[in-house]
Amino acid sequence: MSKAKPPGGTLETFPSPAPQRDFLVRIEAPEFTCVCPKTGHPDFANMILEYVPEKRCLELKAWKLYIHAWRNVGIFHEAVTNRIADDLVAALSPRWLRLTGAFHAHGGITTSVIIEHGKRPQSITA
Description:
- It contains 2 helices and 7 strands.
- It is of the alpha+beta class and about 130 residues long.
- It has a single domain, classed as GTP Cyclohydrolase I, domain 2 (2-Layer Sandwich).
- Strands 3-4-6-7 form a 4-stranded antiparallel sheet, covered by helices on one side. It has a 3-stranded antiparallel sheet with strand order 1-2-5.
- The radius of gyration is 15 Å and the shape is globular.
- It starts with a strand and ends in an 8-residue tail after the last strand.
- About 25% of the residues are buried.
């Protein structure tokens, strides 16, 4: 297994069961939390990961532990979403990846941070 180290967690991968084929993996983590670096209040988000594997797939228990490792980290929405995307790209080397950080209302404002890496295969339409 290959590993990339975030604060307090490890992203583990396993070999793709069909490296010859484009297929979409979509994973939602609706219980993501980090901390606002200005106020110290918790920020909640649904992290939506979509990717087309090249040779590696993300192991889900490690993803859950990685996501929970951000719980007490003071970081802006844009920064945490970019950091997570960088860690995923480093661990997976995917053909294509999109990470959406859909942050819940906080003070009446919602934020979505969307990051894409690579070129989405034309065969993937969902």
